[in-house]
């Protein structure tokens, strides 16, 4: 499985970007976006279940970011609005075998990066004030 993230760039505070993550492979997975700033640990941003019926966000992006997916295109998205300088980071997409968010499974995504077995190469987002 290969994940290819793209769509990053430089914007001013208050601007918007849409990140995409294309999956090359036969299976679909529950997926997530993480981000990492210099000198900081990788941070969870948002997750979406395999079918797209469940989404989960870290508090700092709620109301500003929207995660979605199109399984027919094998692509996941992160629409980022009202960007802030503290959103500056390299954003990574990831995939997990964990089937959270489906009937009879956990209602929240895996809490740690180690649960995600596939990672994209990262796309840089820079937000200036």
Which characteristics define this entry?
129 residues, mainly beta, seven-stranded mixed β-sheet, four-stranded antiparallel β-sheet, 0% helix, 47% strand, globular
Explain this structure to me?
This protein has 129 residues and is an all-beta fold. Helices cover 0% and strands 47% of the residues. The chain is built from no helices and 11 strands. The protein has strands at 2-6, 9-12, 17-24, 30-36, 43-48, 55-57, 65-70, 75-80, 89-96, 118-119, 123-128. Strands 2, 4, 5, 6, 9, 10 and 11 form a 7-stranded mixed sheet that branches. It has a 4-stranded antiparallel sheet with strand order 1-3-8-7, with no helix packed on it. A hairpin with a 6-residue loop joins strand 5 (43-48) and strand 6. The radius of gyration is 14 Å and the shape is globular. The protein starts with a strand and ends with a strand. The relative contact order is 0.31. The model has no long low-confidence stretch (mean pLDDT 95).
> Counting H and I runs of at least 4 residues, what is the number of helices?
0
| DSSP E strands, number | 11
Fraction of residues in H or I helices: under 10%
How would a crystallographer describe the biggest sheet? Answer: 7 strands, mixed
Unreliable runs, pLDDT <50, ≥5 residues?
Answer: none
Q: What is the CA–CA distance across the termini?
A: 37 Å
- Overall morphology: globular
Task: From the alpha carbons, calculate the radius of gyration and give it in angstroms.
Answer: 14 Å
Strand content: over 45%
Class per helix and strand makeup: mainly beta
Summed over residues and divided by their number, the pLDDT gives a mean of: 95
The run of helices and strands is: EEEEEEEEEEE
